Amino acid sequence: MTPLISHSLVMLVGVLLAWLGGELLVRGTVGVARWAGWPASIVGATIAAFGTSSPELMVGIQSALAGTPQISLGDVLGSNIANVSLVLALPLLMYRMTPERASVRRDFTAALAVPLLIAIVAWDGKLARAEGWLLLAAFAVWLAVLVLHARKNRITRTEPGPPSPARPLLLTLGGLVLLIISAKAVVSGGVGVAHALGWSTFIVGAVVVALATSTPELATTIVSIARGHHDVGVGTIIGSNIFNGWLIAGIVMVISPFTISFAEILPSLVLGVLTILAIWPGKNGDIGRPRGVLLLSLYAVYLAWSLAQAQDAG
Questions:
Q1: Which residues touch 312 (CB under 8 Å, ≥6 apart)?
Q2: Radius of gyration (Cα) for the chain, nearest Å?
Q3: Quick check: 260 and 70 in contact, CB under 8 A?
Q4: CA separation (Å) from 156 to 37, 44, 125, 126, 152?
Q5: Which helix (H) or strand (E) is 268 found in, with range?
Q6: Which is the most buried residue in 29, 122, 127, 224, by most CB within 10 A?
Q7: Angle between helices 109-122 and 69-82 (to 10 degrees)
Q8: Are 55 and 187 in contact (CB under 8 A)?
């Protein structure tokens, strides 16, 4: 069996585990939301988002400790593009989405600020430890606002939920474990396929690893939206982008400050802003199906621009 085929099979196993993990995670998070009296969007933006961002976290810590944090930044920025312009675009082609209004004001705004803040700290090409702490502080503020909103909402919510959180928590934990295992398999297989094809380190980080680490978001989002839980699906994507851009990038910069070419990350920053603007709900609060076509077009632009930058750098 050739290395290309063996790594492809590892990726396939990871994808199958991701779909099973996504199914369990959606069932569990919706149950937790009903029991706690929290909006599903908040559980999606926290528990589900953290679980689906675990691959990026592992890649970030491993690359920082190995002295190659640039790969992690490429993975984080590339994953954020893939999360919206690919992962969210696919179900949008089939379903119209209506996210919670409060989450649009709070989470969409934070997600839009992610690439803008990274652009500010990376403008001089130096990502220092202090700037990593700045990203972590921004994440802490967003998380505090989220918790305050959840507490306030729980006081006014009267909808009954499950009598015990035990079963939803077990389902959530099982889903997270499967997603973590699937992420390792997909990342390992994806990097192996890229190396077998002779692709560059930049493409491995910003495109291949980014696509691989977005597999859990894809599985969770499609399962949740297909079941009618739009807030979980959209909340997971938006929350995952915030986790990636502020928490994970901040941790990497604190562990291992590094330098980067601003021109190299410019495609990810520009498309990061455009993709969030492309899913901003209209006046009726909906995200219509035509947005899916627009997002896929933006992803094609991102790939073409990134490949051109990589060739120029080479």
A1: none
A2: 19
A3: yes
A4: 9, 20, 47, 46, 7
A5: helix 262-278
A6: 29
A7: 150
A8: yes
Q: Measured on CA atoms in the order 245, 263, 59, 255, is the torsion positive or negative?
A: negative
The one-letter amino acid code at 167 reads: R
- CB atoms under 10 Å from CB of 130, counted, come to 11
Domain range for residue 49?
3-313
What are the structure tokens assigned to 200, written together? 């560059």
pTM (whole model) above 0.85: no
Per the CB < 8 A criterion, the answer to whether 286 and 98 are in contact is: yes
Exposure class string for 156-190: b at 16+ Cβ within 10 A, else e = eeeeebeeebeebbebbebbbebbbebbbbbbebb
Tokens of 167: 């079963």
Number of domains in the chain: 1
- Give all strands (DSSP E) within the chain, no chain letters: 126-127, 258-259
Give the CATH number, domain containing residue 39: 1.20.1420.30
